[in-house]
Amino acid sequence: MADISDVQSQLVAEIAAIVYPNGTSQPSIAAIPVKVYPGWPVANVLDADLAAGKVHISVYPLPTERKTTRHVGRSWIPITNPVHSVAMTVSGNTVTLSGTPAAQNLLLQVNGTDYIYTMQPGNSLTAAATALASLIPGASSAGAVIAIAGAYSIVARVGGFGAAIKETKRQEKEVQITIWSSSPSARAAIAGPIDSALSDSTTILFSDGSVGIIRYARTFQSDQSEKSGLYRRDLVYCIDYATTQTMQATEVIAPVVNIASATGLAIKTRNY
Question: Which of 103, 142, 203, 262 gives the lowest tally of CB atoms within 10 Å of its CB?
Answer without folding.
Answer: 262
